[in-house]
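Quick start: what a row looks like.
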Amino acid sequence: MRPDTPADHTTEAERLLRTATQYPEDHEPLLLQAAAHLELAGDRERATALYDRLLASEPEHPTLIKAFKAANLWEYGHEAEARAMIEGIRITAPGDPAPWEIIAETLETHDELDTAHTVLTTALGLFLPAEGPAGEIPYPTQSLLTARHRVRRLLALDHDTWDGLADRLHRAEITLDELHDPKRLWSLGSEDPAELKAELARLRTELGSYRAALSRPFPVAVLHWPADELEELLTAYPELQSEYPTHAAHLLDIEASLRELSATGTANLGIVTGTVPSYEAFAASESSSPSNADLLPQYATTLAARGRAVAWPPRRGADCWCGSGVAYGDCHGGM
């Protein structure tokens, strides 16, 4: 279950902080997740303290942390400090798309559209070759293209080559032009049922981006049990049989769930692989029984936050995520 209220977010942040104590080798992604939940709970000063704690610990991704900190600072009245941090990030020109997107979204949120557009254009110049992309474009770069498309629509700029590329990469049924239409807000006040129905469809498509907000740059992950681990799990905790009728059904459900999330616009999807000892340790840390099915999604989220997720779908020609050794397109990708 995903947190919905400030109290839920605070509870989830505390859980992640406890987990970071148990797994100090994974403290950076766990603390970043905890800071995100604190921001959503409205506890922005405490979130800033977590970012400062991370920056003082020689983190693996300092620029990413600075970008999150800048976004958070601007939201609670520290605009000058946030602007200075954003300018510092632009000067360092990080080789990771995530900080670029975060600072661009921060600028966009505060109506700095021209600067946001410049930031996104500069970033894409680093990650896309001038002669055009060759092969698959990684999700983080696709996300930059989508963000730039949105900002350009707000600025009423004509489509360019990168906007066309963003359109081609967009998977949802509703086009980016429609999703990024600046006039959409008027639809929410319409008395025309057709307009309201169309706007609800657009909002459902956008839901994926909000789902991904807590996980960025970590995947929204689905839990996978290998056959031997699932057999051991169900032998020890038969109460979970209703969750996993058979191993084959479990694998089909994983693929179906990921496709459904993808269809609603959720990006940066992943799969985490569970083990019984790890799950039992997690249940003990939550003072609960492993037979409690409500723990399963929390376990998956924690594994993802610890960097244990594998991206879905696999790259073209890669083996299927299920471990069959068969190419994904000839296995679950061919469903």
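That is the whole record. DSSP finds 16 helices and three strands in the chain. The CA atoms of residues 1 and 298 lie 8 Å apart.
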